[in-house]
Every structure is written in structure tokens, then in C-alpha cells.
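Entry for flavin-adenine dinucleotide complex. Fields follow.
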Amino acid sequence: MIPWTAIVVLSAVAGGLGVVLAVLDRYLGTYGECKIYINDNEPLVVQGGNSVLQYLIDHKIFIPSACGGRATCGFCKLKVLEGGGLVLPTETPFLSKDEIRQGVRLVCQVKVKQDVRLLIPEAYLRVQRFRTQVAAIEDLTHDIKRIVLKLIEPDTIECKPGQYIQFEVPGTNEFRAYSMASPPSWKHAIELIVRLVPGGLCTGYIFNRLQEGDEIYITGPYGEFYLREDSQRDILCVAGGSGVAPIKSIITHLFEQGTTRRVTYFFGARAVKDLYFYRECLELARQHPNFTYIAALSAMDPGDQWEGETGFIHTVIDKRLDSCANMEAYLCGPPVMIDAVIEVLKRKGMSESCIYFDKF
Amino acid sequence: MSPYVIFFAAIFTNNIALTYFLGMCPFIAVSRDLKTATGMGIAVIFVMSLTALFAWPVYHWLLVPYHVQYLQLVSFIIIIAALVQVVEMIIERFSPTLYINMGVFLPLITVNCAILGLALFMILRNYSFIQSMAYAVGSGIGWLVVIVAMAGIRTKLVFAKVPKALEGPGITMIIAGLMALGFMGFAGIVNLQ
Ligand SMILES: Cc1cc2nc3c(=O)[nH]c(=O)nc-3n(C[C@H](O)[C@H](O)[C@H](O)COP(=O)(O)OP(=O)(O)OC[C@H]3O[C@@H](n4cnc5c(N)ncnc54)[C@H](O)[C@@H]3O)c2cc1C
Ligand code: FES
């Protein structure tokens, strides 16, 4: 027998309390009209009560925020000059003492209750939201896919090689960061390289549901990890797993521009089945004497035919490079790999200010 | 039993913190500083009074008539969760500093056994509505009194030579024990059943 009375009574209790909360929220959770001043522009006028991040998104100003406002990514840092209130305990793990002194905050945690004054880097103000269409989706390996998104509205993107976009997972409020694998010369489309994370929300969507012709929204470009084009130093690129994407963009861009800088590219994978863009890179190295490509496998499957380097990529770098003094490095991949590589590079004389990386 | 007696008994002889040792986690964690402790105490008074205000009618006018008393625990927990939200909204609105200082302990009142204990005791002891309210406000004040006393002692403790191994929660538990012994002195006056 279904305990109807119990269900009805419990629903009544919960519903009644819900009403009480909703009414209170109307009176306590709203703060009237507040202004958000950004740099020296006209202020945004909003009804207070939500987070700064939310209002910025509402007004099409896109701040990097890979966790969607839950204070776990630490990306949404901005300088709040006035009206931000005190730093919350949820923010302190992401802010250094210096940043706190300068007024840097995680804006997903800052509630608008009064007029707020913010500094937003110009680069963020150039970030746009794009309507795109999937032009191609194909397997690169057993767990990595290549996706090409054609830009529809707006139909051009200006970016630097190495930057990333945020992919809005349809039907949710979630978004995830993916580096662009295409060079900036691709003005009307972007290429992504996505690796399946078992049980992952966004990659699950991409692997199981996404099809050619689907419409997807993305925002971008974001990121401080991009090729420094005004430098003359030799370039070292290191990628692991799906970290190939930004490196591919950087290298393609360099050779499109006919670079004369020496470029060395280390790629670390587990087994032969994880190799991709391998022939393309060998071909590029054949055409350009100033490009060297070294792939290394760390956990070969039985039966793999492999003559090249083996072991973790940082040990291979250690073996193959002598001095790194006149080089700058672009590293992309899982955090453990990046930390290990940085150790090696510093030991070989590279200054920390020449090492750029994206951990994911 | 007169509501006045219940009220005073709830503060002194049957203090919810020191005779039942309920609500210990915020009691230990938030008693480092007088101001925060006072804020926490007031929040607890608030939540307790509101809990009684809502839980009594829900139990006697809804659960009893429909013979679903077994929903007591679930209903009370839902009520407490909602009321803590209310208190959170109010504190955030009127005292952002307090809101930040209480940090995670504010939402944690939801799982504070003192509040649930209060709601269950008042049903167990068959209190009328007026008695329940007196018991709730009294228990809240009682909790405030001991957390403020504890915070007072702990601010003095900064100057004391506490053995390394007992610093922080350790010595606080010991002091709570001594305070409980002290409060036993009131026990003979009245006893709530
Ligand atoms: C700047 C930046 C650039 C990025 N570029 C790329 C890219 O080019 N290609 C790409 O494939 N990914 C990239 N990522 C990672 C990507 O944003 C997602 O985190 C990843 O695809 C998982 O998303 P999901 O929704 O499928 O999994 P979620 O639902 O977020 O996660 C599911 C579970 O997996 C864990 N998890 C999440 N990410 C990883 C991971 N990378 N490794 C192991 N466990 C994980 C989570 O902790 C969680 O427990 C980038 C991340 C950043 C910050
Ligand atoms: S959006 Fe991730 S910390 Fe604010």
C-alpha cells in the first residue's frame, strides 16, 4: 500500500517551508538597484543580490570560470576596487597575500549588495560568445576525438596560439575549458582535441551525443598560455595526453609564419595506440630543419612495435637536451607531468619566467 | 509544569550543552572569540525558537491527526534545514562580518544535534505549545550562556601555559567537562522530566 497520507503530509511540510523561504528571499535577498562600474566604462545597472560573475555573464562579459561559480577552479579573479565586502573563507585558498592586498577577488563569490567598482583586463572584454556548428567529429585514438566547430554567429575569432575556449554543455549550466588546436589563421572555425574522462559530464556528452551538424555555444578566447611572438629564444614544446591541442596550434602558427627559431617538440604518451598526429609531425620535421619531434612512450602494450624513446617524458627531455639557457618552454598536460618537466628545465638553466604552462 | 520553571531549568539545570552534551561541534569550534561566540549563540536561540514555533504545530496539527508520527524525524530535519537558511539570509543581510566569521558553522547549525534534540525532547515530554516555546528560548539562552562563558575562558587561556598536546580542542573539552561539573551544582533546584 502506498502511504499516501505520509507523502501528502511530508509534501505539505516541505512545500510550506519552501513558500516561507521564497517570500523571505524576496525581501532579504534583494538589494535594490546597484551599479557595477567596469574600468572607465558606463556602469551596468543591476538588481543586487546575485554574484558579480553572474551579472557579468548576463551582460555578455565572459570571465574564465571553469567551475561555474563554485569556488573550486580559482579562475574568476578580478580586482574589485570598491564595494566587494570582505574576502570570504571560500576565496582565501586561491588568493596570495599580495593579491588580497591588491583587492583581487573570486568574483563568483562576491555578491552585489551595493555599487561595485571592478577592473577587467581588456582581453576579457574581447571575449565573445559564439554560436557554432559541429563541422567534423572524428576519432584520433581510442579515447581522443578531434572536433571542428564552424563559427556561425559571430563568424570570426581573433585569438593567440595556445588559448582556450569554454564549451557550454547543452541542457546544463556547466561549461568546460578546451584548448584550441587550430592556429589563429583559422578565422572561421576552431579545432578541439578532447580526451574522454570516464564518467565525465562534458566529455561524456561529446563522445556519446555530439554529432555533425549539432549547434554548440562556446565562449572565448581565454588564457595567459599563448605563444610569445616578440621573443627570439628557441622554443621547447612539451605535451602529454590531450595537451597536444595548444601545442599543435603554436607549432602550426610558427611554421605558417616561417619561423627561424629552433622548435623542439616532445610528446609523451603511454602506448602506440595513444599516438596521434605522429606522421604529420614527422613530415613537418622533414620539411623544416629547425623543427625536431620526439615522441616517447611510457607504458607500452605487449606487442607494440616501437623504436623511439621510452619512459616518462621528463626523463627523455633530461637525456636529450643539454642546456636550456636560451630557450623558452610551453608545457601542456597533466599537473604531475608539468611539475616533473619544470624541475628538469630549471636544473638545465631555464629561468622560471620563460616557462609557460597549462595544467589539465 | 509552569513555563517559567521550564525556561529557567532549560538555562541552568538542564542546560542542553552541559547536561546533554548536545551541539558540541560548534561549541568547541566557534568559542575562540567572544564576538563570534555571541553571534553563534544568538543564531542558535533564533533557530531553536523558530524550530519550536514550526515543529510543534507540524507535529500536533499535522502528524498526529493523520497518524504519521513516524515522520517526526524527517519533518523536523526539513524544518531545521529551512530555518537555518532563513537565519543565514538574515545574518548575511544585516551583519556580513558575523556571516564571514561564522563561516561554515552557520550552515552547520542544520546538523546541530542540539536543535534536533530540542525538538525531540519537547515532543517526548509532551509539552504544550507555550511550554515548548519556553523550553526552546531557554535552551537557546542556555547554549548562548555556556558558549560565551567558554569563549571568555578561552580568551584568558591564551596567556596560560597549556601542555602542547592539549592545545585547542583538547583543553576546550576538558574545560567543558569542568563547566558541566559546575552546572551540576544547579541540579537539585528543579528537574525536567
Ligand atoms: C585551460 C584548460 C584547457 C583544457 N584543455 C583541454 C583540451 O584541450 N582537451 C581536453 O580533453 N581537456 C582539456 N581540459 C580539461 C577539460 O576542461 C575538462 O576538465 C575535462 O574534459 C573533463 O570534463 P568532464 O566534464 O568530462 O568531466 P567532469 O564531469 O568535470 O569530471 C568527472 C570526474 O573526472 C575528474 N576529472 C576531470 N578532469 C580530469 C582530467 N583531465 N583527468 C583526470 N580526471 C579528471 C573530475 O575530478 C571528476 O571526478 C582543459 C582544462 C583547462 C583548465
Ligand atoms: S568560477 Fe571557479 S572559482 Fe569562481
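NOTE: The first strand of chain A starts at residue 33 and ends at 38.
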